[in-house]
Recover the amino acids of this structure.
């Protein structure tokens, strides 16, 4: 008798992802990682778009070996020839501006205009690297009759750059163009949350003519970070991320006698004075707190409202309300980030703060799986509340009240962070007073996001930076090079002196 049971169905194949599995980049070749694969999500809809390997320390060893092999030839190439690569690379960034911007939208969630602005900033950073031959020329002086001293700068060797999720293209360009143009070879560790842009950077650098091994990528998580900090052939480590991890990287890297510059988190304060220009203040402050969904270390986080500023606050709320999730406002990076941000809001409300604009439970039609938090403004926050002390990293503005400018500065100065501070006022004297007394490495006057443009370096104070110097601008030259001093005497008649 024939069985009536039907044959078992073949297992359904997993749907193909939009992007192939992310690979490491070693010695000029894309190679598979050697660890388990982690899903890469599109924060806009929660869908999986790729998978990234969580590589091991062995992958770091291979990348460092490739960089060491390339170093001598690259370092001995004159700097004016090295920067020719970056002239060509800059043109490729411009050529692929739209594609690179759309990739950031997918892997990070930024709205298109913000993603495009990020790539444009990467182009600006590359432009600065192209100018390095003009600003790194060695110094020469006749220090006494017949005796000459000169100073020349030499690359360090193999360096590492560990970058965060919030700017998949811009922050890598804080380090890549300058470090490489100055003659170093690099191993980059992208955030495992946004690894796709790094691969495109590698491909474009190769197209621009960068020799194999000068730039390498190892994808991964904590094991890769620790391996970079420990590797004996890595001379310097740069890091951008949370203060907790920045401290750990700084301790581990310097404990291994490396040069380390680690940029941590932020809790930026904006002092709002009653005489501030209403339109300029409200639009700039709202853009600062909600731009890039608040996921930037320069975002306005605490507004210290001085004296009678209620009318200005109402205008800020109106401006912030216009940032509609899914239109002018992208998602935050993950479901965990969304839950954490909303928890800060709820705890502040329960503690007595007044929610003027509530972004909790934001939903975007058609993107129900996305990780959206709407713009949020909370008034009458006490300085001791967690939302006023800790980095929220979302589109949230906490308003703390102060009777006068000295009280406002006292609130700002008590923060352990020191990344940025701003003041909105029409008084030049008051602006100078605040700029001189704010405990922050970057200060804005009527500027909500006081990011220095090239050639000025980016960097904060206190718990926002560990190490000396800046990663960008002129001061980055000190970090990525070491100086050699040469004293020469050819003139026999110079005689014997203390330099003999």
């Amino acid at each position: 008798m024939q069985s009536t049971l039907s044959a078992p169905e073949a297992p359904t194949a997993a749907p193909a992802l939009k992007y192939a599995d992310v690979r490491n980049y070693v010695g000029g070749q894309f190679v598979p990682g050697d660890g388990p694969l982690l899903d890469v999500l599109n924060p806009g809809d929660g869908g999986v778009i790729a998978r990234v390997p969580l590589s091991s320390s062995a992958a770091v060893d291979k990348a460092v070996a490739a960089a060491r092999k390339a170093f001598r030839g690259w370092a001995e190439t004159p700097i004016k020839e090295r920067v020719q690569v970056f002239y060509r690379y800059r043109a490729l960034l411009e050529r692929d501006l739209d594609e690179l911007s759309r990739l950031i939208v997918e892997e990070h969630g930024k709205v298109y205009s913000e993603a495009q602005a990020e790539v444009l900033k990467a182009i600006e950073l590359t432009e600065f690297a192209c100018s390095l031959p003009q600003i790194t020329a060695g110094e020469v002086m006749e220090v006494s009759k017949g005796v000459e001293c000169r100073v020349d700068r030499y690359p360090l060797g193999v360096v590492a750059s560990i970058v965060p999720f919030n700017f998949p293209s811009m922050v890598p360009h804080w380090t890549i163009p300058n470090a490489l143009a100055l003659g170093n070879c690099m191993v980059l560790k992208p955030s495992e949350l946004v690894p796709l842009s790094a691969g495109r950077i590698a491909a474009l650098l190769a197209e621009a003519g960068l020799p194999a091994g000068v730039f390498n990528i190892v994808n991964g998580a904590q094991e890769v970070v620790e391996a970079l900090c420990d590797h004996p052939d890595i001379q310097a480590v740069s890091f951008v991320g949370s203060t907790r991890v920045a401290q750990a990287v700084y301790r581990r890297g310097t404990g291994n006698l490396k040069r380390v510059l680690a940029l941590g988190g932020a809790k930026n304060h904006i002092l709002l004075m009653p005489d501030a220009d209403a339109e300029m203040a409200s639009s700039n402050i709202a853009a600062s707190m909600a731009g890039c969904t608040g996921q930037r270390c320069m975002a306005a986080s605490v507004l210290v409202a001085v004296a009678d500023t209620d009318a200005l606050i109402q205008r800020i709320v109106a401006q912030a309300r216009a940032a509609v999730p899914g239109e002018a406002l992208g998602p935050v990076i993950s479901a965990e980030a969304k839950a954490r941000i909303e928890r800060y809001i709820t705890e502040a409300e329960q503690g007595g703060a007044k929610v003027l604009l509530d972004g909790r439970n934001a939903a975007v039609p058609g993107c129900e799986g996305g990780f959206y938090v709407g713009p949020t403004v909370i008034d009458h926050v006490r300085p001791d509340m967690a939302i006023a002390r800790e980095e929220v990293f979302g589109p949230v503005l906490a308003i703390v009240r102060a009777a006068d400018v000295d009280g406002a500065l006292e609130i700002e100065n008590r923060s352990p962070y020191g990344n940025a501070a701003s003041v909105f006022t029409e008084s030049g004297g008051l602006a100078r007073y605040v700029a001189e007394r704010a405990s922050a490495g970057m200060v804005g006057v009527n500027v909500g996001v006081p990011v220095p443009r090239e050639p000025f370096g980016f960097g904060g104070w206190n718990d926002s930076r560990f190490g000396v110097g800046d990663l960008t601008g002129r001061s980055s030259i000190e970090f990525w090079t070491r100086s050699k001093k040469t004293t020469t005497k050819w003139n026999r008649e110079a005689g014997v002196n203390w330099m003999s």
Remarks:
- The longest strand covers residues 147-155.
- Confidence is low (pLDDT under 50) at residues 1-13.
